[in-house]
Amino acid sequence: MEVTLDPSVEIIYNYFPKLSDTQREQFRRLGELYPYWNAQINVISRKDIYSLYLHHVLHSLGIAKFTNFTPGTRVLDVGTGGGFPGIPLAILFPEAQFDLVDSIGKKIKVVREVASAIGLKNIAAYHIRAEELDEKYDFVVSRAVTRLADFYRWVANKILKKDRNAIANGILYLKGGDLRDEINEARLQAEVHPLSSFFSEAFFETKHIVYIPV
Ligand SMILES: C[S@@+](CC[C@H](N)C(=O)[O-])C[C@H]1O[C@@H](n2cnc3c(N)ncnc32)[C@H](O)[C@@H]1O
Which annotated residues bind S-adenosyl-L-methionine (predicted)? Predict the structure, then answer.
């Protein structure tokens, strides 16, 4: 399906200038695959698909400006929807291993189709509720799923004890808006990092990464 995305994939290349040819091609292909799949199974609002690279791909990669994932790191993306933030992160960190889960099966179909079309080998996608998952990971990433207090209850027991990265294992949650109430409600020791310190576009002025070491 032909749609003109604004901005184009160049915004990803500009913020991540060291990508390999394979990674550049994988990011470019997302601009064809998501409009195609989204027309059949809604994973991004119809209007927002034009902002795929800014609102979805680059937003997901905010986590990669905050931390790297060393080879062998295991990452769980809870409530991944069509694959955000999991798919952009799996492209960027081909030697880390990503499990993407969602409670809606048809969204997982989109994740599998996109991952397979771009030859992503470091992803597995499962139709399962986060609370039912019985695995452990170095990091749990997520965007826009539920309030932090509930989220923490779902995933705190899924974090491996032994750290293998520069930052301690834990939760990396992409959030917008005022977070103080949510963090206080959850009684968590959380660090809030504004994405505007990594990206200059106005979209990121209200966006944050919440990092909760577990
Ligand atoms: C607003 S969407 C966000 C999707 C994606 N993370 C994104 O940012 O584009 C929230 C997603 O969380 C999923 N979800 C909600 N509760 C869940 C649970 N308990 N376990 C797994 N997925 C869940 C929903 O099915 C939905 O796809």
Answer: 79, 84, 130-131, 143
